[in-house]
Structure formats: C-alpha cells, structure tokens
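Hi P.,

Sorry for the delay on this. The queue was packed all week, but I finally got your sequence through. Input first:
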Amino acid sequence: MPSFRFHIPTVAAWHMQAGDITAYFPETVLTHATLQRVRPPCCFHYLRASDRIAQRCCQGQCVVGKSSTRKRQRRRDILPGSDNARPVGSGMWWQVALAVAALMLLATSLGLLLFSVGPTVVDWSRMRHWQAVPAQVESARLHQGGTARGGSYYQALVRHRYVVNGTPYIGQRAVIDTAGDGGRRYHEQLVAQWQAAQRAGAPIQVWVNRDKPAESVADRSLRVGSLLWDLVKVVFTGTGGLLLLRLSVSTIRRERMRRKP
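Then the structure:
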C-alpha cells in the first residue's frame, strides 16, 4: 500500500473528522485504506512516498493555490534526490552560459577569418601581379615573441632598399603574413638568406606594386600549410559555436514554455 505525508494546513483543516490522525505533525504517515475511510469535506494535497507532487480533490474544489504548486514543483526539479530531477546543466542559467560560450567560439572563428585568413589570401592575390625589382638588404633579423598561452611565435624582419623609375624607396615588409607564426624553420631560412646577401653585397629580388611603388614585399610565397591549419580552426570553432548556440537557444525556449502557467 502506498503511504502519504500530508501538508500541515490541509491536515489542520479536517483533523476533527479524522480522530485517528495526529493533525499537527507534518510527518504523519497514512495508508491508502485510512484515506478511503476518512472522507474530509475539503480538498487536500499529499505527497507520494516517491516524492512526486500529486493533487486530489474530494468535492471538486481546491483550497491550495496553483502558483504555490508550481513553485514547489520547480524547487523539486532541482533537488538531486527526487525522481524527476533534471540532470545538471539543463537549467536556464546553464543554457545561458552555454550560449555565451558559443558566442565566444563564433567570435574567435570570425576573428580568424577576418584578420588572418582573409587578409592573407587577398594580399597574396594582389602580389601575384607585382613587379620584380632588385634590392639591397640593409638589415635582417629573426624576431621571437611569446603568446598568451605560453608558446612562441617567430617573425622574419628585413629592411631593403630599391629604386623604381629613378626614385629610391625603403621597404620593410618581409612576407605576406606580417603577424608571425610558429614556423621557426621557415623564418630562419629567410633571415639566413637575407643576411648572407647582405654580407656578400649581393642584391635580392623583391616584389613592388606598380601602381604604388612604395609598397613592396621581400617574399610573396603563400604558406599553404599554415593557411590550411587556420582554415581548419575557423571551420571547427565556427561549426562548434553554431551547434552549441542552436542547442542552448532551443533548450531555453523549451524551459520558458515549461515555466509558463
């Protein structure tokens, strides 16, 4: 037989008609047979032994408000010991946090696309039509910096002098991607090549914009491996952000619909 625990105000309302019930003790346990014998004239709420909220009306009227029932149901939804408890991470605030994380992933993907992959491809496409001009190397060195995650990045720096249509110019752009990356060997080889030309006094070949002779680059080769790695990061972070955002938004909508009266 299932047992029940009565709410104090409910028991107090009809305790005079149930002589075998200790009215003012909320933990009084009643059997189903006792409930069938005692027919109180008012409506009452009881909790099943499995801790699920139930409602039963004796004469079609309920004296307990619906709002209080909903509040109790919401409180019981977050209790880890209840049978109908939702898993951790399914609440409204958890989904808001997931939505914020998804937006951060999308912002990261968009930043890589706009400030790394996009400019590199656009500059490489423009520099394919630039003119080759001999230049003299004034200085060349390898710059090593640190990242926020504790890693290192490398950047080849060069200063070269060239002449276009009788006008001397100074160029300082070494490669297409001026931000640097983790490819140490690539930058070391470029710097070693330029330093050797500087010591020997030999000219190097640079690429100059015909329309704007002040724009030049010492090495216009496109690093396919680095570009593909950046594209992989853009696709993975963007796809993960979109999926996570869609999941969190749909969960928030279902949660709001569930909380509506």
